Amino acid sequence: MELLKLLLKVVPLSLASLVAMGVEAEASPSAVIEWNNVILEAIRVTHPGPPMVARMLAVSHTCMYDAWAAYDADAIGTRLGSALRRPEGERTDANKTKAINYAAYRAAVDLFPSEKPVFDAKMASLGYNPISGTNDMATPEGIGNVACKAVLDFRHADGSNQLGDLAPGAYSDYTGYQPVNTPDSIIDPNHWQPLRVSNGHGGTVNQKFIAPHWGNVVPFALKSLQQYKIKAPSLAGSMGYLEQAREILSYSATLTDVQKVIAEYWADGPNSELPPGHWSLFAQFVSERDGYNVDKDAKLFFAMNNALFDASVWTWGIKRQYDYVRPVSAIHYLFNGQTVKAWGGAYQGTRDVLGGSWNPYQASTVVTPPFAEYVSGHSTYSASAAEVLKLFTGSDVFGYGVTIGKGTSRVEPGSVPAADILLSWATFTDASDEAGISRRYGGIHFRDGDMEGRRVGHLIGSEAWKKAKKLFAPHAGRDNDGST
């Protein structure tokens, strides 16, 4: 019941749909699920950027997986291989659970130091001593501590600048990125423009590109940023540049309640778990739907979150490479001094607006995310996660639904939607495709940024799954599927 309560709180789930699917909540979710929820809540509280969230989840679940692998007959860890392997008599669920708890705790404290009291309380509630730093590998707490330390030691030097040792401030840029444009001037219409947006308290703040160095981070299975060939985005002066802007205006002028709901549901803006965490919630549903145990949970969340992590590295590397303009800036540039038909703002419906002041269907504190357009993170993240979920389960079947209540919009509260709307996805691919197009409905991304992100995201997910399978069952001739 704990998982269902979480889902109902975070994404208003259609309980009738869930019951109709024959899904029943387990009384006690695995340690992997419990700590996934703890990490997601820490993300909601601390508000890191999207690529940092992907890494946080990947590091956490890698620590959990490596600790779990010590108690499996075949699986090997990412850092220490089979060196932590415990004898058959110790391979109990109790030992796996305890090792996972200690590994998850070490990762959580390292990644979210401000939330340590919360993590201490979690360990105490489980009956564990959080200050036990033992490295005795004859104990599950020792396995958890040693396994996670190896992962953290490696990740502290992965180029993310988590510790602020490459430049002051955790995860701060150390590459010297400077935007070509300013909040007041579009100097080059092919490049990203930082916007001046509402801070929600009567003032404004100038956007700063989140993590322009992220393409330098050591990935999981990704070999290089050039591993996947993509076409370059359309340049100003070309018909493609104009047509992609016109498409966004067309969406804006004809937005339905369903499209508005889709744009908001997938937005995952401030105070949420962001796209990588969103897919972790979906994975929890799959675990519950299919009755997974701690073994399958350890492998599923490890594989999927490392695919999402690779998606973050590739996407942000491409964003930095092209530093491409967002729709809001391109439309301001193209249609300045002209009148266009579009969404006119909250509660204004479709009307004639000045092209130079057009805004996308977003909250005033967001307007457009603070990083370059090409390619879409939502599209790449979602496709990579969907691919792993499909490959792990052996089917693209999802069967999940979310009811969005009447008037619950954050952009037009009380008005949108006019009646309850059920969003549902028969397949993982359906869900990931909707996540991609949601950004076009919301005026955040162009078609090419969406479609190229989707295409490469599936490839990234497939490569991450291949590497994960080799870790799950490294022996030649074994059927390396996700089963135990």
Output the structural class. Answer: mainly alpha
CATH architecture: Orthogonal Bundle
The proportion of residues forming helix, as a percent range, comes to 40-55%
Low-confidence stretches: 1-23, 478-484
Please state the average pLDDT score. 93
- Strand content range: 5-15%
Instruction: Give the count of structural domains.
Output: 1
Question: Could you tell me how far the N terminus lies from the C terminus, measured between alpha carbons in angstroms?
Answer: 25 Å
The major β-sheet equals: 2 strands, antiparallel
Strand order of the largest sheet: 1-2
- CATH topology annotation: Vanadium-containing Chloroperoxidase, domain 2
Count the E strands.
6
What's the overall geometry?
A: globular
Summarize the structure.
This protein is mainly α and 484 residues long.
Question: Which features would summarize this protein structure in a list?
Answer:
Vanadium-containing Chloroperoxidase, domain 2, globular, mainly alpha, NapH1-like_2nd, signal, two-stranded antiparallel ribbon, 484 residues, PAP2/HPO_sf, 15 helices
Explain what you see.
By secondary structure, the protein is mainly alpha-helical. The chain has one domain (2-472): Orthogonal Bundle (Vanadium-containing Chloroperoxidase, domain 2). Helix content is 48%, strand content 6%. The chain has helices at 2-10, 15-20, 31-46, 50-69, 93-111, 116-125, 140-155, 239-253, 257-267, 274-290, 294-322, 327-335, 377-393, 428-441, 447-472; strands spanning 196-198, 204-206, 339-343, 350-354, 397-404, 421-427. Strands 1-2 form a two-stranded antiparallel sheet. Strands 3-4 form a two-stranded antiparallel ribbon. A hairpin with a 6-residue loop joins strand 3 (339-343) and strand 4 (350-354). The longest helix is centred in the middle third of the chain and has 29 residues, at 294-322. It is globular, with a radius of gyration of 23 Å. Residues 300-449 form the Vanadium-dependent haloperoxidase NapH1-like second helical-bundle domain. Keywords: Signal. Residues 1-22 form the signal peptide.
